Amino acid sequence: MLIDPFGRAINYLRISITDRCNLRCAYCLPETGVKWMAPEKLLTADEIIEVVRVAADLGITKVRLTGGEPLVRDDLLSIVKQISQINEITDLSLTTNAIRLGELAKPLAEAGLQRVNISLDTLQPEKYHRITRLGDFQKAWNGILAAEAAGLLPIKLNCVVVGGLNDDEIVDLATLSVEHSWHVRFIELMPVANEQDWGNGLPSSDQRYVSVQSMHQALQRLNLQNVDSSTRMGPERTFKIPGSLGTVGFISPLGDHFCSKCNRLRLTADGNLRSCLLVDKEISLRKAFENHEDLKAYIENAVKIKPKGHELSQHNCPESRCMSQIGG
Ligand code: SAM
Q: Best mutation site among 24, 95, 189 for ligand 1, i.e. most ligand atoms within 8 A of its Cβ?
């Protein structure tokens, strides 16, 4: 079991398998784009599997693949298949924009993927294209339906709420949970290395942040019922519209201090272990791979340097990577 200096058990590894993405979401990537990592800098599938095996021996039971966009990596199915065969990993999921899920949902389920979280910030095709700068709403929507048909359940939809952009759609997005057994989760915008002007008439930084309290307020007429249990593990506070099939959740990295319950470790596509999404402290595994060293000590060291919590309220924001390079 991996226990950090603050007594938190770490059993969840999030792996960014590529920094590349087929979208350029305004809040995630700069308008000018970022320079993709050179292919030889990325961990190979074998290296990723080796990290998961060692991490599983140390007590990791839950793995999420992310990116960039994980569905653009050519050997994704082989990575999923190999991780799904590691007995200790009992929860294998993936976070995606769903653009390629129409074709990949079924093969992914067959390879052993259990479930997906899908990013969807608007139901309006024109706005979808504006936010993502490249995306086609219909492809993402078809991808969600394909994931559902392939049994990648439960489907969780992640909506980052941005003032002046999609905060007028909170009711419409939440209402998706009435007829679909989907978990619609509203997420506060995080200040991660992307505070510059977003261009293209998108809102300025002083307009963008919307607190979960304001989101909740906007949903007042839906009469949300609290379904949080005392065993709440993740960062989400969960509610239900009476009579609905799905749920509505709120994730507040800024306002709600779930750091005390954080069970996560992250692996970047270029092989750095990062113990907090919002703190720029990393341990590189490159040397370990080059010298054929045991990865165990590296993973344990990454857990040892896990900070007590982020320091956004003291204006200590991560600057070394934008969100697409960490994986969210
Ligand atoms: N490409 C995949 C996707 O779109 O879901 C996975 C990578 S993406 C970086 C992972 C998650 O991070 C997405 O749900 C995205 O909405 C979220 N995200 C990116 N930038 C964010 C920000 N500044 N604040 C909050 N969430 C953010």
A: 95
